[in-house]
Amino acid sequence: MTTAAAGSPRTYQVRTYGCQMNVHDSERISGLLEQAGYVRAAEADEQPDVVVFNTCAVRENADNRLYGNLGHLRPVKDKHPGMQIAVGGCLAQKDRGDIVRKAPWVDVVFGTHNIGSLPVLLERARHNTAAEVEILESLDVFPSTLPTRRESTYAGWVSISVGCNNTCTFCIVPSLRGKEKDRRPGDILSEVRALVDEGVLEVTLLGQNVNSYGVEFGDRYAFGKLLRACGDIEGLERVRFTSPHPKDFTDDVIAAMAETPNVCHSLHMPLQSGSDDVLRTMRRSYRSEKYLGIIEKVRAAMPDAAITTDIIVGFPGETDADFEKTLDVVREARFSSAFTFQYSKRPGTPAATMDGQLPKQVVQERYERLIATVEEITWSENRKLVGETVEVLVAVGEGRKDERTGRLSGRARDGRLVHFDAGSLAGQIRPGDIVHTTVTYAAPHHLNADGEPLSHRRTRAGDAAEAGRAPRTPGVLLGLPTIGAPAAAPAPTGGCAAN
Q1: What does the pLDDT read at residue 59?
Q2: CA angle, 472 as apex, 469 and 474 as ends, to 5°?
Q3: Which residues contact 486 (CB under 8 A, 6 or more apart)?
């Protein structure tokens, strides 16, 4: 017995936690399931036939959040025989069989290296009426060869590598996603072209450490070359990338950013700490002087560049003097935004067992001071843009207050969030369209443009959004099982089968 009515396709829902890698992996999970005959459940559907949790092991309380949500689903599943629950991603790679032991109503557990196995595992679990746990230690199929159901009509993630060769003491990613594996440039560019053909205007090149791209095939300048090659793709208007590592950041990448018109002048470069002693303990192989030197070069080549970062406060052994050095770097770097984190232990990382773990109240006090310093700077930097004209790619879901304020929202070329008034164009501007408008107000985390837009360009991405079409990239057919009756075979047209 299944929850789907006889003859109707089984429905699915994917719940995603964590970083951009997880978000993009969820697009692949959706693509796989739809290729196998499942259909996405409506947002209001509280009992889809399959629920997939794509998990993160890096964020604080990741396991508590997962098991809490699994607990909420147990009575739903009990009332709907045939419902299946799958858990994948980094936490699944880490916890493995413990998930089924703690939550025996879970049907499938799969890791970061075998996303493509999910449809097979679901069918096997249904047939055997038993949980299926499959965790591979190394990459099975490069994820970008899998079919993908894109979430956005106007912007797309494109993986250039998976895994990481760094050994930062606070990070568990290398043990969960493995050593770096690079895609060939031709495969990456083919995927970018396929997205542009579907109407996508912006791509973000994605990797745990994008500027070490090329390590597998021995070309340390491969990433800069890739950026320049993206500049030759007609119809591609914006190129972004995340995340680079300061130790691998080379001058040729700065030149490629400055000289390739569709590469955005926005850079997310994690700092983590401004203290050289803490960076050494974190096993981050750069120092604050080198970091600030990179920023100086970026701004010399692109004065309008918006630079964002990641910062951890309260790392084991961090002193008041260490923290003050972080504040000094923040003031000198003039970030346009910063993702700030209080250090918390991650089981399995060297930092979790280090001496010098700091009391919560100390970490909290430093965190609040960091936030205040960052916001003072970001607000000051944003105020410089009042009166400037910005190009906005209209987005969905960026402005939580848009419905109440009557504004639309999107991202400027430098990545800043802009809320704007559509004026006389209200009702004509679609997600994926391009608007030029003038900044009238600045806040620490966004800009407002409350005057009449200066221009509005309808785009193919906007057409797709209006028609409700989501871009799909087919990937490589893997002979995956489908649900329901198989499609009829085409009539033979020649060769041995016709005789």
Answers
A1: 60
A2: 150
A3: none
Give the pLDDT score at 237. Answer: 98
d(Cα 435, Cα 411) in Å, to the nearest integer? 10
* pLDDT on residue 488: 37
Q: Which residues have CB under 8 Å from 402's CB, separation 6+?
A: 408, 409, 419
User: What span, in angstroms and rounded, lies between the C-alpha atoms of 418 and 407?
Assistant: 10
At residue 27, what is the residue type? E
Q: What type of residue is 421? A: D
- Which CA distances in Å does 379 have to 2, 9, 367? 54, 50, 18
CA–CA separation, 23 and 142 (whole Å): 16
- Nearest-angstrom CA–CA distance, 42 and 39: 9
Are 201 and 237 in contact by the 8 Å Cβ rule? The answer is: yes
Note whether 257 and 227 are within 8 A (CB): yes
Say what the pLDDT of residue 137 is. Answer: 63
For residue 185, give Cα distances in angstroms to 61, 179, 213.
37, 19, 10
Within 13 Å, how many C-alpha atoms sit on residue 52's CB side?
Answer: 29
The number of angstroms, rounded, from the C-alpha of 69 to the middle of its chain's C-alpha atoms is 22
Q: Report the 10 Å Cβ neighbour count for 136.
A: 14
Q: CB of 8 within 8 A of CB of 454?
A: no
Using 50 as the pLDDT threshold, list the residues of the chain that sit under it: 1-2, 476-499
Give residue 319's identity as a one-letter amino acid code: T
Query: What percent of the chain clears pLDDT 70, i.e. is strictly above it?
Result: 87
* Consecutive H or E run containing 53: strand 50-55
Q: Are strands 202-206 and 306-313 parallel, antiparallel or unpaired?
A: unpaired
Beta bridge partners of 305: none
pTM: 0.75
Query: What's phi and psi for 296, nearest 5 deg?
Result: -60, -45
Strand 417-421 with 132-134, pairing: unpaired
Give the pLDDT score at 484: 39
Max CA distance (Å), the chain: 84
Helix, strand or coil, per DSSP, at residue 172: coil
Are 115 and 143 in contact, with CB atoms under 8 Å apart?
yes
For residue 301, the model assigns a pLDDT of 98
Look at the alpha carbons of 380, 382, 385, 387 in this order and tell me if their dihedral is positive or negative: negative
Q: In whole angstroms, give the CA distance from residue 398 to residue 238.
A: 18
Helical ranges in 302-359 per DSSP H = 320-333
Bridge partners (DSSP) listed for residue 409:
419
Decide: 121 and 132 in contact? Cβ < 8 Å.
yes
Distances (CA, A) of 88 to 45, 57, 74, 168, 486: 21, 11, 18, 24, 27
Q: How many CB atoms sit inside 10 A of residue 387's CB?
A: 8
Do 205 and 240 contact (CB within 8 A), yes or no? yes
For 463, other C-beta atoms within 10 Å of its C-beta total 15
- The phi, psi pair for 123, rounded to 5°, reads -65, -40
